[in-house]
Amino acid sequence: MKHIAVLTSGGDAPGMNACIRAVVRTAVYKGIQVTGVIAGYEGLINGDFRKLDSTSVGNIIQKGGTMLKTARSDRFRTAEGRLTAMENIRKQGIDGLVVIGGDGSFRGADILATEFPEVRVICIPGTIDNDLYGTDFTIGYDTAINTVVDAVDNIRDTASSHNRLFFVEVMGRDAGLIALRSGIACGAEAILIPETKTHIDKLIAQLERGWKRQKSGHVIIVAEGDDAGGAFKIAEIVQQKFDKLETKVCILGHIQRGGNPSCMDRVLATRLGYEAVCGLLDGKNRMMAGQVAGKVSFIPLEKAVKHNIDVNATILEIAEIMSL
Ligand code: ADP
Questions:
Q1: Of ligand 1's atoms, which has the minimum distance to the CA of residue 101?
Q2: Are residues 243 and 221 in the same domain?
Q3: Tens of pLDDT along 100-130?
Q4: For a substitution probing ligand 1, which of 7, 8, 9 has the most ligand atoms within 8 Å of its CB?
Q5: CATH number of the domain that residue 42 is part of
């Protein structure tokens, strides 16, 4: 392995820059040439490459987003698009690829490395959703939940001062991990997630109970993929049956994807960036570098795809007990 390329793909996540930095500096240390690809797979197809060295990745560890830009690429989903990408990879003399992204990006990387075994790929989990097998945490998740916690703490001030009922919608189309963890940390009165059925009557009974004991303000965290609909829809249904508190809705949206990465995300990103380069040098291919129980682990890409992680029943129970 003489020349590797690194790219970020799919949704951006805080910590991607720290990871790029680690890949580049590890490669430089090991004496390997390293190239950055601009805008993910689109950059591979367009031949948009930048030579990187230790200086190129200075002063980025603390920055959110990705210095290499990220994108979604429909062309890469086609055999023709991937062939063009491969021709550009060949022209550059690249023999290893590090892909930082989510499960869609992993699928693309796996297909490329299967079709063209001359290039080896290692992927690194970079997504705020934390919904991949083979790693306890994905890069960006810790920062995202801390952003949610800060926002909900602010909303809680208003909820308490005005005795209001707030529905706060957080990211999580398929997984409620952001909602659950941040909801517990914020002392949410209820946490509504896609993995469990939402019973509106149960929610209203809970609100009545809180109202009777003169709770000052209620905050309900709603994952966007909850089966009862988004926060606006749920708030509307609830308001028709429970009108004792003024109801407000707040959609946190893209603020959850940005911001300076937390210490945990910077360290995780640095460690996995280092391991990905070492993995390529060891001959690993079509694997994801993750961290399980504090140890680095490599699993085949096809196993690291998105899934609905079984929500820990005890965590759900704790969330419910704490909201009494
Ligand atoms: P994420 O990596 O965050 O899950 P996406 O699901 O949008 O984001 O995937 C990022 C990109 O990966 C897609 O735009 C596409 O270029 C590529 N990709 C995803 N699935 C496939 C696939 N089945 N075949 C080829 N490329 C894919």
A1: 2
A2: yes
A3: 999 999 999 999 999 999 999 999 999 999 9
A4: 9
A5: 3.40.50.450
